[in-house]
Amino acid sequence: MTSITKIFTFAAAHHLSNYEGKCQFIHGHNFRLFVTIGLRPNRQGFPEGMIMDFAEVKNIVEGHVLCLLDHNDLNNTIKNPTAENIIEWIKDVLESVFSVKNVYLKKLQLWENDTSYAEWIKDDNPSD
Fold first, then answer.
1. CA–CA dist 128, 125 (Å, integer)
2. Less CB within 10 Å around the terminal CB: N or C of the chain?
3. What's the CA gap between 105 and 51, in Å, rounded?
4. DSSP 33
5. What is the C-alpha separation between 119 and 128, in angstroms, rounded?
6. What is the DSSP letter of 65?
7. How far apart, in Å, do the first and last CA atoms of the chain sit?
8. Most distant CA atoms of the chain, gap in Å
9. 67: helix, coil or strand?
């Protein structure tokens, strides 16, 4: 099935509570967020020849996610902001926004650095 992916970057600080190690102290990352969108299965073809305009994806992600995370302390928005908890928070926000479109959130990747990322993949087919 065809999908599209838009890549975003943002900088943010966080620390991990109840954790013994370097990450217990406040530190920052230059995150990379990959947002993959699919067309709902019952749709025929691509409206206007595309699943969704990349500019619209950009506006949604910037307006609902990055505006709250970029250049902020993630602990103020997300409880225990591990990569896994951050990506789940992003998934919850974006699924609700994309659910009113003819598309669905298919996959997310959140890279903390060049070698470490968390990934969320939709397990089942989207419903209408």
1. 10
2. N
3. 12
4. E
5. 24
6. I
7. 17
8. 52
9. helix
Cβ-based neighbours of 26, under 8 Å, separated by 6 or more: 13, 14, 15, 73
φ/ψ bin of 98: left (φ > 0), alpha (ψ from -120 to 50), beta (otherwise): alpha
Residue-wise pLDDT for 9-19, tens only, equals 999 999 998 89
Q: Nearest to residue 13, comparing CAs of 86, 66, 65, 69?
A: 69
Answer yes or no: are the C-beta atoms of 116 and 32 closer than 8 Å. Answer: no
Residue tagged 């020849």 (tokens): 49
Q: Say if residues 106 and 121 touch (Cβ distance below 8 Å).
A: yes
Rounded-to-integer distance, Cα 26 and Cα 30, Å: 14
Q: Which CATH class is domain 3-30+38-121?
A: alpha beta
Mean pLDDT for the stretch of residues 95-123: 94
Q: What is the spatial distance between Cα 45 and Cα 33, in angstroms, rounded to a whole number? A: 27
Query: Residue ranges of the alpha helices (H) in the chain?
Result: 54-61, 67-69, 83-98
Q: What is the pLDDT of residues 18-65, one digit of tens each?
A: 899 999 999 999 999 999 999 887 766 676 788 999 999 999 999 999
